[in-house]
Structures are given as C-alpha cells and as structure tokens.
Amino acid sequence: MFTQRISTTRRIGSLTASLAIAALALTACAGSDAGTTPSAGESGGSAKTDATITFIPKQLNNPYTDVVLGGGKEGATAAGFATANVVGPLEASASSQVSFINAETQAGTNAIVIAANDPDAVCSALGEARTAGAKIVAFDSDTNPECRDVFISQVVAKDVALIQTKLISEQIGGKGEIAILSATANATNQNEWIKFMEEELASNPDYKDIKLVAKVYGDDDDAKSFQEAQGLMQAHPNLKGIISPTTVGIASTARYLSTSEYKGKVALTGLGLPNEMRSFVKDGTVTEFALWDPAQLGEVAAYAAKALVDGTITGATGDKFTAGALGERTVEDGGLVIVGPPTVFNKDNIDEYDF
Amino acid sequence: MSEPATMSVDTSKALPGATPARGPRWYTGRDAVMIYILIVFLLYAMITIPRFASPVTTGFLILDVIPTLLIAMPMTLIIITGEIDLSVASIAGLSSATLGMMWAGGSNIWLSMAVALVVGLLAGIFNGVLIAFVGLPSLAVTIGTLALFRGLALVVIGDNAVANFPKEITALASSKLGATGIPIMLIPVLVVVVIFGLILHQTAFGRGLYAMGYSKDAAHFVGINVGLSKFWLYLASGVVAAAAGIFWTLRYTSARSDNASGLELTVIAAVLLGGVSIFGGKGSIPGVLAGVLLIGSLNYALRLGRVSDVVLVSLTGLLLIASVIAPSISASITRWRHERRLRRQLSAPAEPSVTG
Amino acid sequence: MSAPAIGTLNNSPKQGGKSASAWLKLRELPVTVALVVLVVVTAVINPLFLSPQGMKDLLLNATIMMLLAAGQTMVIVTRNIDLSVGSILGLVAFGTGSIFAANPNMPIVLVVLIGMVFGAVLGSLNGLLTVWAKVPSLVITLGTLYVFRGLNNAWAGPKQHFAGDRPQAFGNLSVNTVLGMPIITLVAVIVVIILAIFMIGSRPGRDLYAIGSDPEAAKLFGINVSRRVFTAFLINGALAGLAGVLYASRFNAVGATTGSGLELDVVAAAVVGGVAIFGGSGTVIGATIGAILLNTITSSLTALRVDKFWQQAIVGVLIITAILIDRLASLRHAKNLREKEGRNV
Predict the structure, then answer these.
(1) A235 contacts C53? CB cut-off 8 A
(2) Is B143 in contact with C267 (Cβ distance < 8 A)?
(3) pLDDT tens, B19-47?
(4) A158-190 confidence digits (pLDDT tens)
(5) If we measure between CA atoms, which residue out of B73, B3, B9, B111 comes closest to residue B241?
(6) Nearest CB neighbour to B141, from listed C310, C312, C323
(7) Is residue B254 included in any domain, yes or no?
(8) Is residue B136 part of a domain?
C-alpha cells in the first residue's frame, strides 16, 4: 500500500519533470523562432505576395560561407525579396542538407540558393521543391545541372585553375615537384579546378619541368589539413610547392609551414581569405594567393534568384539580368553565370581587403 | 547504479499487494510518459508552427526518421540486455559503400542490395562472436568495429560517390502512398518494428533479454543461453543497420563511405530517451518508438521554424540528460517528502510518549 | 592494513619484481612494442621520418591526444567514461582565442590557468551529474557532448580566431624546442608523469583503481566513492582544458567545430594502451603510449605513401587486438591465481 503510493508519486514526479523539459524545449523553440525572423518583414504576417529567399550553405559557421552569405543577404534585400533566411547544417555531410530543403519546400519559399555538399544527394529534394514552385539557384558548389535553374560560378573555372598554376610556377621558378592539398575528395568545384590544372600542367610547355606528385585531401578541417601538409613534406622530400584551392586548406598549410623548417623553402599558393592569410603573407610564408570577392558571389546569386522568381529569366542560355551595382550578367551554356575575375593578393595590397 | 536496485525492490514489494489485480499500470510507466510528451509536443507544434499540421510533414518527417527508427529496434534489445552497439552507423556506411561499388561494377541492383545486406550480416556476426562467445566488453569491441567498418567502407569505395542508381528504385525509396503523404517505405519498416516488438514483449526469448539485463548470472541459472541470445542480437543489429544503409543510399541517391556517420549517437540518444535503461533490464518498443519520433519531430519542427541547428544540438543533449536524471530528481523529492512526513509523524506522537 | 588489500584488488602493474615474467605482464608492453616496430619500419623505408623535423611533427601530433588519453584513463579506471572531452577542448580552445583577441598582452601562464579552470568547471559538471544522479556517465557525457558543442556553436557562431591574432610567443610554444622536444609536448609529458605518479603512488590514486575493480567493496572499505569519481572527472576536464589551450597554440583556426569527433579517438587510444573499459586496470603511461601509437600510424602511412583509406581500418584492427590481448592476459592471470591457491591448499 505504502510502497504503491510512493511509486505513483514518483511517477507523477518524473512526469512533471519530463513535462518541464518539454516546456523548456518549446520555449526555446518559440523564442528562437522569433529571433531568426529578419527585420525585412513579418513572417506569418500578410506578406504572402512577397517573394522569399533562403540560402542553404554547405555548412554554417564557416568564415568563407559567412562572407558569401553576408553579400547574399544584402543582395536579397536590394533585389527586392521580402524575407531572406539562412538555414543549414552544422556539418558538411552529403545528406545533411536534404531535410532543410524539405522544410523550405513546405514553407513555400520562392527561391532556394544552395551550395551543394554532394551534387546528387540533394537532387530529389530540390526536384520536389521545384514541383512546389520554387526556383533553384546553385552557387559556390554546383548540383547536378538538371536539378537547378542556374549555377552562379565565382569565376570561370578554367581561369581560377590557370591563375593558381601561374602563381606556383612563378614562385618555384618554373620547375620542381608540386602537390595539391584540396578540400574533400568529392568537392565538385575543387575537382573541376584540379582537372584544369592537371591539363594545363601537361599541355603548357612553360610548365614542362613542373611535376605534380601528389593530391591529398584535408576535408576542410583545420587539424586534418595540417597533418596532410605535414605528411606531404615527409613523403616528398623534394617538394617545391603546394597549391591549396580551398580557404581552410591554405591557411592550415601556411600555419604548418610557418612553424616548421620548411618556411620560405616550400612555396604555397591557392585560394585564401585575406583576413586569414594576412599574417602568413607578412611573415613571408606565402608570397601570393588568389580569390574572388565572396560577397559578390552571394549578391549575384540573390539577383539571379529574383530574376528567376519574377520570370525575367528562365535560366536559358543568353538570358540577361542586372545584378545591382555589379552590372549585367548573362546566363551562359549549361545555365552558368560568372561573377567576375579572381583577385591576386600579396603583401602590397592585402591590407586593402577586409574579408 | 543504485537506481535499478531500488526500482527492483519496488516491484517486488508491490507484487504481494493488490496492484496486479487492478490491471496493467502501463499508463504511468516511464515509456508511457514519453508517449504523452510526444503527443503534447505534436499538438503544440500543430497549433503554433505554421504548416506543421500537413501530410507533407508526415512524409518528410517519416523519411527522415526511418534510418534511426530501424536501427533503434535491435539497439533497444541490445541495451535491454545491458550491452551496446556503437558500430551500427559504420555498418550502414559499409553497406552503402558495398551497394555503390557492386552497382558501379555492373551488378544487378537487387543482387547489389543482397550483397550489401550480407556484408551487414557478416559485420554483425563479427561483433557477435567477439562479444557473445569470446566474452569481450561490447563497448570496447564496438568502438573498435566503429573504426574498422568505417575504414572498410573507405577501402571499398574510397573517395568516390556512386549516384546513378535506377530511377524507379530511388523513386520507390521516397514515394508516398497517394495523397496521405505516408512514404511507402514505412510499411516494411513497420513490419520490422512489429517483429522486434513481438520478440521483445511476447516471447520467452524477449523475457530472457530482460532477465539478462537484470543479472547475467541469474539469467544463466534459469536456463537462458546468454551467449547465444547476445549473438543473435548483434547479428540482427548488423542486418538491420545494413538495411538502413541501403535505404539511406537510395533516398539520397548517393553511395558514399561517410553515409550515416554519427548516426549511432542519435540512435542511442533516442533509445535512452524512450525509457530504456542503460543498465539494462528496462524499456519497451512503444517507448522507443515515441523517443525516436520525439527527436524526429522536434528536429523537423525546429527546421520548419528555421531555428538554428545549434538549438537542436543543445536540446538533444539536455533532453538526454534530463531523461536520465528525472527519475533521480523525483526520487529525491519523494525521499525528502517522505522524510518530512516521517519526522512530523514521529514528532507529533513523540511528546505524549515522552511524558508517558 | 588496507593498502596491500587494495593492491591485490587493483592488479596494479608495479607489483612484483622485475623478472622476465613480470615484464611480460606489463599492460604497456604490447603497445610499446607495436610503437617501436612501427617507427623503426617506417624510418628504414623513409629516413626522413626520424629527421629532426619529422620527430618534432610526430611529438606535436601526439601532444593533444596524450593529455586527453591520460585524463580519460583516470575516468575509465573508475568504471566511468567521459565522451564530452572533444566538446570541452573546443570550448576552451575558442575561449583561448577569444581571450587573446580581447587582450593580446595577457600573460600566457594566466591564460593556461584560465583554460584549465574552465575545463575543470565543465568536467566537474559531468562529475556532479554522474555522482549525484547516480546515472551512468556514458549517458551524461553523451548529453554534455551535445550541450557543450551547442554552447560552442552559439558562442562562436561563424567567428574563428586565427593564429595571427594570438601573440607570437604563444604560437612559439609549439615551435620552439627544449631538449629536442617542442615546449607543448614537454608540458604534456610533465603533466602525464605527475598524473602517473598520482595514480600509482598516492592513496586517492589507488582508490580510483579500487573503485573500478569493485565499487561495492571500495565503499565497504570506507572510500568516498562519490568524491573520488567527482575528482577524476574534474581533473580530466582540467586536462581537456589544457589540451584546448595547447590546441590554440598549435593550430591556425579555433571556432565552433574545433575538436569535434575527438572523443572516440581518445577512448580508442586508452583502450589500445591497455586500459580496461570496465575499470580497475590500466595505466596513464599505457594510454599515453596508445595515443602516440595511433597518431604515429597516421603519420607513418602518409610517409610510406600507403593508401590513406586503410588507415581507419588499421586503427579498428588495433583496438580489437588490444582488447583481445587484454582478455588473454587476464585469463592467464586468473589461471595463475587459481593454480597458486590450489598449491596453498
């Protein structure tokens, strides 16, 4: 009798405790819900006729992505979207973006701008979004071409490859062994650049003395890229230079070189963020590296999305739209839109940039 | 550690009382509480989150939770026996990689799936032999096979991704039953859930698992073949994890070595949240079902509300901690009340007794 | 009176003379042999592996993991586990970055102290929940793994702190060497040695083994189990904090995801180093060598240009081998004991 009462009380107690947790969960949910609504318009209000745009980056909390999204949100407001949202996974895995696309589909978002972690994994989800009426803009990293309307490419893929081979050739004096330290092994954009680099190294007589001896992948993880850089040095004692076509990779490699005996002996170039690379350029670890303006990438993507939503363009070759102050852009073969030429950074100009 | 002890004392004392005669008390159990919370949450979400109450939600939500739900079934049984399997997500990755390589190598898609399942079976047998027959601790073994099977997935498929699976098969993985929004895949998944539910709750084998969770030796003495039972569980876990890997591959139309990585922690979190005791001996399939669905719908609701995953990550952790310490909190409150009452009762008649 | 009894309970490796059979019983032996073989084979094939820079890299790579594995051993020995160390490391590493960003002139020693205290606070939270709620630490620390990571994400957001923002002297800790060892490695080695002495040579340390061997017996013996377990979590947290500060010294970027996924590597290092997952046996030194071994495998494979895809599978095989060896050793030990007792009768 007595025990039975205790056990009932206990169960009620644990029920109360559990309900308290649930309540906590709900408040957190509701609280943040209000917090993330941007100032541009009231979500759930009367703005149903207004167009909405959502950016889905490869992963949140990545400095490069942050600059791109900053430009994107500004562009979205300027282009006339009522609300601009950013959602995305904390880990850049292939499947992690799908449930975000699903939620956006259900929310009836007019334009989804996505940097795909895997060109195929997001496809069927994007297909459903398009069936529901959303326009799909891929940026930064392309999806399978049949799953999106246009792809905003930072630069002409070949240009970005050529500028990196040119820089490394200059830095190592036109001959010697080089290696590539990339992001993940199936990163679409990096692989395309690497393909062009390999072709250029093989075909251009200026580079006949340069030998590409290794391709390694740091998975855009700081510690992993660091160890890969280290391994390159040991596995290839005659290495003269490294190309790292990813912002995480180049910074980690620079950190390793600057703290090792290879500083100044092994050249490093690639694509990097000026803010991350500044100290390495100043201490002489890195002479020159390249990048486009990431904010412009986001901006052009936002304008392209607006043009698609408004029906000004359909994504067909030859379509033209104006990307605000950045001027007119044309949709090229394969639904490609190019943002602009890459910039080369060195110790003379790096202080002029803040991203 | 002392918690199951007090609980078991509880039940044994309750037995001679009138409780059994008054019918089942399932509606106040730990798993029942979980089901109430799930219902309350779903109602709340339907009312406050725009668009949550729609068949589209059902479809996406179910598709999202299928891998977790599948793997949670054998995991529930394993944890009830007091063991654990951390290698499930790696087995799913290995099966995904195998499926991809077989298909890319020109095999028939059904044959590829069958081989992927066999690979999962072998992985499960490997775990099972080491744990059940060699007698190694499951936590350590499956940390090892977590690395081993994921490593083998990398060896099998490397950095490649295989994507060109037949359209009709991948479409099947995400197609819905008419306008209801319920994915067709839910049917075989429910069959698996029911099978595991029946095994655990309706068979002698299932009761044996609970007994093992309470005391291995006792279970052994009442004639349960502890080793063999565990072996079957790990084997089942391997096959089901492989099936989840196949579903994952087809749903995302991408076979990669890193598919489903990290899923083991989500599954374990869901199972524990569903009222299964990590010490073994306690838990039920309906509770786990509620646990999986709660995490899944919380997840989906937050995404629909565009709340950052940061909140979700923290919330999962808090729920997990709260779900295990809630009994302790209520127990200590009860103890405090009980003591206070005792003290009051003792002090009230104490005075006359002193004078008398 | 109680000291020798604890000795038999904990099956401590420092027992008995240094006869050949005693050496064979050392739990650290297999892992040490594996490490030596690995290093020798790699160095023969690629001499650069043991060049000054190569050695330095090897040591640096293992430093962080050494600290984490040593701390984890303390916890595992008491039959507990701390899965949240990766998240603790991440929070402290980002905290270190933030401190230097706000105040570049802060004395380094002070920052190290703050980092350790921060880690200790997080670790003691694990300890408190485990001890007070009497809930298995596996679940509690799985929960705090998520919670701490969530906090880190909320705090850092997209912000990262880079090596360039930190004082040169701080970064140099992982560049300059003393006695051929990078300073941060030296720090780690000293900490590990202190911890090893504490575990074997002090009463509270030996209590931890007693608790892990048989919690009930330990309680009967008058050991304050709760306090000891709490202390183990606290020290483990402090070491993870120290590892976090050193991480910030060595690597370039610290941010929201720093240190994620480290927890299983740490447990793996301890297991490979002969620490029994269900408590009661294993040494800090063994776990440290396990950490060095796992890190060296990565470097060796790269130096040997072996397909890196094999790496993880090899680690898995190693872990399972380590548990098997452990099992065989304890079986033989039990057999010996039985025979001895038989003779006595």
Answers:
(1) no
(2) yes
(3) 333 444 556 677 888 889 999 999 999 98
(4) 899 999 999 999 999 999 999 999 987 767 788
(5) B73
(6) C323
(7) yes
(8) yes
